[in-house]
Amino acid sequence: MNQTSRIPCLLLAAGRGERMRPLTDELPKPLLTIKNKSLLAWHLEAFSPAGIKQVVINHAWLGKKIEDALGDGSQFDLNIAYSPEATALETAGGIRKALPLLRPSDYFLVINGDVFSPYLPIEQLLDQVSSLRSMPNKPLAHLLMVPNPVQHPEGDFYLKGSQVAFEPFNGAEKLTFSGIGLYHLDLFKDLELDVPSKLAPLLREAMAENRVSGEKYTGPWHDVGTPQRLQELNAVDE
Question: At CA 54, angle to CA 67 and CA 26, rounded to 5?
């Protein structure tokens, strides 16, 4: 197995899932099911075949239920560790807290636990790591971007080629960040431990230094943000 295959992965599962209530009153959002399989399980089943073995899952709301459901990861041929948060630390704060468990040498993969992307090209994403490492001005993040969904028509960032920017630039397409990306540990080096921190300001700062790359993904991807969207995904025939 090559070095890029051994990078660790963090699944973000600490959100309260307010928009999914009442479904999330008794169950953490990432344990909601599509086709009788939890959102987290969809991700986990794809990791081992892609060469990922070390996984960390952060949690806050009803986190014990996540640990009880997934255990040590052996059912997925993975090693799962957990990064509990007394109160949710936002995305960047959660990543910062999980770094000692992830122990990345440089890059690591992060995936939102509440996105559904059943054919996610994880191996293709991991293949980017060697090229990121070879760049003289190493990117601090490599983001998977998707076409803007109905519920988020304005998008997030601009992409042209492999360059991602916060401001529009010549010929760039505005797309939505999928919640799936590769990050360099240096992106989080100035964050204090156990302090809530958002990811977007860190990304914008890195974009200003032209240190964020990305790629467009047009395969199936869904932000499972409401009970209606969950119901629609369960109603779709395979």
Answer: 20
How far, in Å, are 36, 61, 83, 151 from residue 86 at the CA level?
A: 29, 9, 10, 30
pTM for the model? 0.94
DSSP 8-state secondary structure symbol assigned to residue 187: G
Parse the chain into domains and list their residue ranges.
3-235
Measured CA to CA, the distance from residue 179 to residue 106 in angstroms comes to 19
Architecture of domain 3-235: Alpha-Beta Complex (3.90)
Q: Any residues with CB less than 8 A from the CB of 153 and at least 6 apart, and which?
A: none
113-132 core/surface letters (b: 16 or more CB in 10 A; e: else): bbbbbbebbbeebbebbeeb
Q: What is the mean pLDDT of each run of 10 residues along the chain (238 residues)?
A: 69 86 88 94 94 96 94 96 94 97 97 93 92 94 96 95 94 96 97 96 96 96 90 81
